[in-house]
Structures are given as structure tokens and as C-alpha cells.
């Protein structure tokens, strides 16, 4: 019997102890991988939505907080308090295109869905939408609805179906070809129609800005701020702000998972110390047969590392499954909508290897003291143990 066979046999000889010790490290690694997977999926979706926004600058009400910036990317409702006059003054600045929007919520089959009021003439070219079925809006006063491709499929919506928006029955006139971003799960109506239905007067929620010269973005920001008393953020600043919030939350959750792994490591210490006392006679026999102290030490370290390897692998699998199950169950809000729309169960391969490596390192470190204790037994003391 070689040393690897002895390792497996020794670890699994007491199956109850083996299973519970393994479960400890598995749960800790599973929690770590779940948070990494959800966090990784969240960041990828945020970056994708920022790219799909199609704007270089976003004009928001003065003093808008980071949560409202997240809401812009997620298509969540926003206060409607930017006036038509302010939009016109921004649009009059040379070298930029301004697209005002209203974003609110409505219901489709009792499910909350974002509905956005858009300027008809500008939006199609701005977003580069393609109509999969039906038609685009015929005018600014067209009381029809455009539906995102994924929403139409999930809710089984078709051209000619009607949806109730603020008590008004409106027909679906077109379905947008899938874009791979939040537009797939939203409804769109002409901006004047949205202002009338939601009693917004001449006001909008925010304004998307596309500039002609990217090298002058900072100058445009200053010029807009001098022209109107509104907040202005670039797409890069918006992305950095949102990712900073997500990163802070993600780091906190990962630290909680690391603590769980370290707690499991103490379980390995206890298991290995118990094994050291129970197997004194076996250690003495090995020493009598010529096994040196480093062999005994290596044997126990391999047993501890085996817990880490097996626990890491099972933890990674359990964590990915948990992330896959958890993502559609997360309550919908401005942050978690990204996880729900994305593939939260995907994780970079290098991070999976790192998670298994961390599990093994924690287990090996936990096994150092028990292995040292076992190797320090004298042959006489070990073989005479009853």
C-alpha cells in the first residue's frame, strides 16, 4: 500500500467524522464561490449596460446620489424634475446630441416592468434598434407600445395585444429585436404620451448626451453645468461609481465567506488532533518499520490537504449551483436586476482554481500542528499506547 492509498484509507476510516469535517470546508468554499459568482455576474452586467447606454454623458437632477445613477443603468424609476427649458438649453450647446427620457414602472401580467418615454425621432438611431415584428412609432403622439424582445417572449406578448398603462389601454405596435441589454426587458412609448399619462407636464427624468469630440468631454461637462443647474456625469464616472458600490458590498460578503472557511479549518485541526491520539499505535508500528519522522509528518499533512482538495472541489460545485439557483430568486431592485438579467453562475476559471487553492492552503495550515505532534511521538511511547 503506497502513501496515497494510506491517506485515503486513514481519512475515510471514520465516515461520520470525515463527512462532517468535509461539509465544514465545503460550506465555506461554497459561500465564497457563490458570492464571487454573483459579484462577477453583477459587474459584467453593469459594464455591459453602461456600454449599451449609448451615451457619453448623463444629465441628472442636481445632487443625484449613486443609487439614482445605478437606477439609470437598471432602468428603474427616477424622479421626473428636469424641465423642457433645461433640456433645450443643453441641446443648444454645439457638438452634442441630447436625448431626454422618462423612466417609470408599469405592470405586465402582474409583474413590474420598466416603461420608458422616448423621443421618437432620436431614439431609434441613438440606440440602433431593429424591429423584429410590427413597426416603429409613426409619430410623437402614437399611443402604441414597443416591447423588448425577451419580455415579449417571456410574457407571450404579440403584435395587437393591449396593455393597460395608468388606466389607458394601449396596443403593442412593435417588438424590438434582442439587444442583449436591459432594453430586452422593457416597454417604450413616445415621450409626450408618457408625460401625459404620468402627469409629468414638460419634465423628464434624465438626459442622455452623445458628444462629437470625446477629447472634449470634460469641457462639455463644465459647459453644461454653467448652462443649467443640473448634475452631469460621464459614462466612465457612472460606471466607476456603481462598480465601487458593488465592489464594497462584494468584498464584505467575501470576507464573511473567508471567515466560514477559517472556522472549518479549526474543524480540521480538531479532527486531525483526534486522529493523532487514536492512531498512536499505528504511528509506533510505522516507526518500528523504519518510517522517519518526516514520513509521519508528510502522511498527516497529506490527509489534511486531502480534506482541503476534496472540500474545495465540492465547495466550488455547490457554490456554482447555489449561484445559479439564487440569481432568479433575488428580489428585484436597482442592484440585483443586473444579476437576474445576467448569467450569475459563470465565474472566471482562474478564480475557481484560486478558491480550491485557498481551501487547500487553509486545510494544510490547519494540519501543520497535528502533523507535528504525530511526528514527535517516540516509537516506544507510540507502540505502547493502549
UniProtKB/TrEMBL annotation:
Q: Where in the cell is it found?
A: Cell membrane
Which part of the chain is the MacB-like periplasmic core domain? 19-225
Q: Does the keyword Phosphoprotein apply?
A: no
TM stretches of this protein: 20-42, 255-275, 296-325, 345-369
- According to the entry, every stretch annotated as the ABC3 transporter permease C-terminal domain falls at 256-379
Pfam families, per database record: FtsX, MacB_PCD
Keywords on record? Cell membrane, Membrane, Transmembrane, Transmembrane helix
Q: Which family does it belong to?
A: Belongs to the ABC-4 integral membrane protein family.
Protein name (Swiss-Prot/TrEMBL): ABC transporter permease
Q: What species is given as this protein's source?
A: Geoalkalibacter halelectricus
Amino acid at each position: 500500500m503506497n502513501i496515497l492509498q494510506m491517506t485515503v484509507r486513514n481519512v475515510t476510516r471514520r465516515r461520520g467524522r470525515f463527512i462532517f469535517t468535509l461539509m465544514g470546508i465545503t460550506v465555506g468554499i461554497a459561500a465564497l464561490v457563490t458570492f464571487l459568482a454573483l459579484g462577477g455576474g453583477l459587474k459584467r452586467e453593469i459594464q455591459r449596460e453602461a456600454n449599451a447606454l449609448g451615451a457619453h454623458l448623463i444629465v441628472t437632477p442636481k445632487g443625484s446620489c449613486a443609487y439614482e445613477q445605478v437606477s439609470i443603468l437598471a432602468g428603474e424609476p427616477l424622479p421626473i424634475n428636469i424641465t423642457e427649458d433645461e433640456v433645450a438649453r443643453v441641446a443648444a450647446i454645439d457638438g452634442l446630441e441630447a436625448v431626454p427620457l422618462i423612466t417609470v414602472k408599469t405592470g405586465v401580467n402582474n409583474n413590474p416592468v420598466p416603461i420608458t418615454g422616448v423621443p421618437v425621432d432620436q431614439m431609434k438611431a441613438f440606440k440602433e434598434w431593429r424591429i423584429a415584428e410590427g413597426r416603429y412609432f409613426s409619430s410623437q403622439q402614437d399611443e402604441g407600445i414597443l416591447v423588448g424582445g425577451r419580455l415579449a417572449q417571456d410574457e407571450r406578448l404579440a403584435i395587437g395585444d393591449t396593455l393597460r398603462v395608468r388606466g389607458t389601454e394601449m396596443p403593442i405596435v412593435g417588438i424590438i429585436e434582442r439587444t442583449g441589454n436591459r432594453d430586452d426587458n422593457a416597454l417604450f412609448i413616445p415621450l409626450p404620451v408618457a408625460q401625459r399619462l404620468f402627469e409629468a407636464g414638460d419634465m423628464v427624468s434624465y438626459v442622455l448626451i452623445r458628444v462629437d469630440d470625446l477629447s472634449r468631454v470634460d469641457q462639455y461637462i463644465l459647459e453644461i453645468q454653467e448652462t443649467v443647474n443640473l448634475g452631469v456625469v460621464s459614462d466612465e464616472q457612472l460606471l466607476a461609481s456603481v462598480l465601487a458600490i458593488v465592489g464594497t458590498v462584494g468584498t464584505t460578503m467575501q470576507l464573511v465567506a473567508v471567515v466560514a472557511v477559517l472556522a472549518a479549518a479549526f474543524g480540521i485541526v480538531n479532527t486531525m488532533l483526534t486522529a493523532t491520539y487514536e492512531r498512536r499505535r499505528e504511528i509506533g508500528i510505522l516507526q518500528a518499520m523504519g518510517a522517519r519522522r518526516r514520513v509521519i509528518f508528510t502522511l498527516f499533512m497529506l490527509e489534511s490537504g486531502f480534506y482541503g482538495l476534496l472540500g474545495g472541489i465540492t465547495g466550488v460545485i455547490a457554490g456554482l449551483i447555489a449561484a445559479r439557483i439564487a440569481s432568479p430568486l433575488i428580489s428585484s431592485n436597482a442592484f440585483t436586476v443586473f444579476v437576474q438579467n445576467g448569467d450569475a453562475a459563470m465565474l472566471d476559471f482562474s478564480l475557481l482554481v484560486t478558491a480550491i487553492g485557498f481551501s487547500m492552503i487553509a486545510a494544510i495550515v490547519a494540519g501543520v500542528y497535528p502533523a507535528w505532534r504525530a511526528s514527535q511521538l517516540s516509537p516506544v511511547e507510540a507502540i505502547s499506547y493502549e
